[in-house]
Design a protein that fits this description.
The chain is elongated. The two termini are about 50 Å apart. The protein is built from 17 helices and 11 strands. The protein is about 60% helix and about 10% strand. Strands 6-9-10-3-11 form a 5-stranded parallel beta sheet. The chain has a 4-stranded antiparallel beta sheet with strand order 2-1-4-5, with no helix packed on it.
Length: about 550
């Protein structure tokens, strides 16, 4: 898991290395400062003059400034490394999602993927920041402080070693108790993201059925479950602070009590005031280091489940890939289904499609009709290889679709889906999804063919009109016409219309079909429709019933 995550550091390796490097410098300097102070105290006690004090003063100032510089640089490079790592991690996850086949996407809910790209990556970023800085600083500070404490205080420093196992056991029990709670909490984040996502998308339905109170209660229940779970976790983690405080004050009490007794009884021959004050300082640094280590453990514990969820997405490999030496040219738009059988899942009891045997010539117009659930959409999704057949063969241009390069195959097929999708951007930007290099005149031409120019030209900004996310600021019929124009601009070898004119009137539907016939006569057109008027001009009409022809 760690190895997979570290691949996302890439160009931020130098910043990742420099961060702990400057931390080491900062820790060494901080360990030297109390030592110099103890020497200064002893010299003052011995009656040194002002020049000796000033000599110590400039050394202490110089060390303090150097420590400040190291701390500043470690903070700068830590921020650069952690934010860069998070950016690369988001990029890697999003890039891998783009490669997923539909069957891969079916494994993860959209809400879960959003949570992994946001909350989980933020947790991992914080953990990475802690690991390259605090997790380096704390143990080094502990080692240097104990070494200096032993040099200054001798056997009295052993008390610091005694307290470490006590703290270690306490921290282990805290982490062990909290980890299962965190693990249960992340699916709740997915759930609350899903609720918000559903309500934003379906806000019109919620309001039309007056279900605001129901949705608010559902959100509140999930939010309250998260609150209860993480309150319980925080209550357990909160034990960390009193545990550290007890340890710190116990150590300080021991050092003060026995150190003072040693100074008095030995007349400061075994331990003097300077050594005692320095021992107190190092003891405090040791305790702070242990507290920082406990924070590191908590942060790593909290982020561990996030790491697993992120790596789960990164390790997911597309079930549909291009083979080596794949075909990079589609000769024509002919389509052949040779005794095709298809199931969405290998464990499914019955197939969605059974013994489909169709042979379509390039340039033909094929109508497909059938009742709800007759597998019309499932059939056409096999053509651009959004799913692979379970049995049989699908051929495009007389070649098995599995032999094509995926980009080549899908670039030769345009689909206008039943659920039309527009993206945030201008109307022209959305149309250019069909051809990113198309001129404005070409965009206007296909919009005219799709009868979309009728409403576009009436808009104040015309083709520069901004489309909101999901096309919420245009009607269903306008959205369909824009999606048809986008597909026409692509000039594909195969055009699939999946009930894509259901929201337009029959007259406009007829105009669009006539325009397609004249504009792309060589393109094979497959039209799925509920009304027979949409397929009356087809060369053949296929009727699907229960996944069979």
């Amino acid at each position: 898991m760690v190895k997979q995550l570290l691949k996302s550091i890439r160009e931020f390796k130098l910043a990742t290395i420099l961060t702990p490097t400057f931390v080491v410098g900062e820790v060494i300097i901080e360990a030297l400062i109390p030592f110099l102070i103890s020497l200064l105290i002893n010299d003052i006690k011995a009656g040194c003059d002002l020049s000796v004090i000033l000599g110590y003063a400039w050394k202490l100032v110089a060390l303090s400034l150097l420590s400040l510089l190291c701390g500043y640089l470690s903070g700068i490079y830590c921020a650069k490394a952690s934010t860069g790592f998070a950016r690369n991690l988001r990029y890697d996850i999003f890039t891998n999602i783009q490669k997923f086949s539909f069957s891969n996407i079916d494994k993860f809910s959209s809400a879960s993927l959003v949570t992994r790209l946001t909350t989980d990556i933020q947790n991992v970023q914080m953990a990475f920041m802690v690991i390259i800085r605090t997790a380096v600083r704390a143990p080094l500070n502990l080692i240097f402080s104990f070494t200096m404490a032993y040099i200054m205080g001798g056997t009295m420093a052993v008390i610091f070693l005694i307290i470490i196992p006590f703290l270690g056991i306490g921290l282990y029990l805290i982490v062990k108790t909290v980890m299962p709670i965190f693990k249960k909490g992340f699916p709740l984040f997915d759930k609350i993201t899903r609720i918000v996502e559903e309500n934003v998308k379906g806000i019109r339905v919620v309001k039309s059925f007056v279900r605001e109170d129901y949705e608010i209660n559902k959100f509140d229940e999930t939010s309250n479950d998260i609150r209860k779970m993480f309150t319980r976790a925080e209550q357990i983690i909160a034990l960390n602070n009193p545990l550290m405080q007890i340890s710190i004050y116990a150590v300080m009490l021991f050092v003060l009590m026995f150190g003072s007794e040693m100074i008095i009884k030995t007349n400061a021959t075994s331990l003097d005031v300077g050594q005692l004050s320095t021992l107190m300082t190092y003891g405090f640094q040791i305790m702070v280091s242990l507290m920082m280590l406990s924070m590191v453990f908590v942060m790593i514990t909290f982020s561990e489940e996030s790491c697993k969820r992120i790596v789960e997405v990164l390790n997911e490999k597309s079930s549909i890939t291009s083979k080596e030496n794949a075909i990079t040219e589609v000769k024509d738009g002919s389509i052949d289904f040779d005794h095709v059988r298809f199931k969405y899942s290998p464990t499914a009891e019955r197939p969605v499609l059974e013994d489909i045997d169709i042979h379509i010539q390039s340039g033909e117009t094929i109508g497909i009709i059938g009742g709800t659930g007759s597998a019309k959409s499932s059939l056409v999704q096999l053509i651009p290889r959004l799913y692979d057949v379970t049995e049989g063969t699908v051929r495009v241009g007389k070649e098995d679709v599995r032999d094509y390069d995926l980009v080549t195959l899908r670039d030769s097929v345009a689909m206008v889906l039943q659920k039309n999708v527009l993206f945030s951007g201008t109307i022209a930007d959305n149309i250019r999804w069909g051809n990113k290099d198309a001129t404005l005149e070409e965009v206007k031409h296909v919009c005219h063919l799709a009868c979309a120019d009728e409403f576009i030209e009436q808009l104040p900004d015309g083709y520069d009109t901004w489309i909101e996310q999901g096309g919420t600021n245009v009607s269903g019929g306008q959205k369909q016409r824009l999606c048809i124009a986008r597909a026409l601009l692509k000039q594909p070898k195969i055009l699939i219309m999946d009930d894509s004119t259901s929201a337009v009137d029959t007259k406009t539907d007829a105009i669009i079909r006539k325009a397609m016939k004249e504009y792309i006569p060589e393109t094979t057109k497959i039209i799925i429709a509920q009304r027979t008027s949409s397929v009356e001009d087809a060369d053949r009409i296929i009727v699907l019933d229960g996944g069979k022809i």
